[in-house]
Amino acid sequence: MSTPSTDTRRLFDVHRGDAPLRVAADRPVLPAATLRKWLRDMMLIREFEVRCMQAYQDKKIGGFCHVYIGQEAVAVGCVAALKPEDPLVTAYRDHGHALARGMTARACMAEMFGRVDGCAKGKGGSMHMFDKPNNMFGGHGIVGAQTPLGAGLAFATKYEDEVMRGGTNSRVTLCFLGDGALNQGALHEAMNMAGLMDLPVIFVVENNGYSMGTSIHRGTTMAHDLKSKAIGYGMDAAVVEGMDVLETYWGMKDVVDQARASSRPCFVDLRCYRYKGHSMSDPRKYRTRDEEEAWETDDPIGRLEKYMLEKGFVTEAESKEMLKAVKAEVRDCVAFADASPMPEPGELYTDVYMEPWGPYPGSSQPTFTGGAANVPSFRAIDPKGEVL
Ligand SMILES: Cc1ncc(C[n+]2csc(CCOP(=O)(O)OP(=O)(O)O)c2C)c(N)n1
Ligand SMILES: [Mg+2]
Question: Distance (Å, rounded) from C-alpha 92 to C-alpha 144?
Answer without folding.
Answer: 10
